[in-house]
Amino acid sequence: RRIDPSRVAQGERLVVVVTLRATQKRPARLILNDPLPAGFEIDNPSLVKAGDIAEIPWLGLVQVPAHKEFRADRFVAAIDRRAKDGTQFQIAYLVRAVSPGVFTHPAATVEDMYRPTLRARTASGRVEVTGPLR
Predict the structure, then answer these.
(1) Rounded to two decimals, what is the model's pTM?
(2) Can you say whether the dihedral through the CA atoms of 15, 55, 71, 33 is positive or negative?
(3) pLDDT digits over 4-63, tens only?
(4) Which carries the bigger pLDDT value, residue 50 or residue 116?
(5) How far apart are alpha carbons 23 and 25 in whole angstroms?
(6) What is the number of other CB atoms lying within 10 angstroms of the CB of residue 37?
(7) How many Cβ atoms are within 10 Å of 45's Cβ, its own excluded?
(8) Which of 33, 58, 90, 91 gives the lowest tally of CB atoms within 10 Å of its CB?
(9) In angstroms, what is the C-alpha Rg of the chain?
(10) Integer Cα distance of 73 and 80 in angstroms
């Protein structure tokens, strides 16, 4: 179910879904950089089986990145797109709210590695991690 990302309870796990839309079909090697707000950690599927998005059946439209990194402060993915691919696709990963507080949610960016003038960014925002779920 969709949630209001501006207010999340400590301990809650969320699926982050980033939707990317191109203005035209063309081959590209993209880099997605999605910084986390403080107070959140990524559930790394290399360390925690529960972090594997393959276990979430409703995520049918997700692009499998050529490379992905689950860093302490961000999710980074390299995505190969072919000219015949659609103009819209999604990337997903799992996070957990770990520290209560009010934090800035930085903007995500995507850039074509070989044409760096082709880039986009999301809006930034605020998120509050409230006390633990009861």
Answers:
(1) 0.84
(2) negative
(3) 888 999 999 999 989 899 888 999 999 999 999 999 999 877 655 555 566 566 665 556
(4) 116
(5) 7
(6) 22
(7) 17
(8) 58
(9) 15
(10) 23
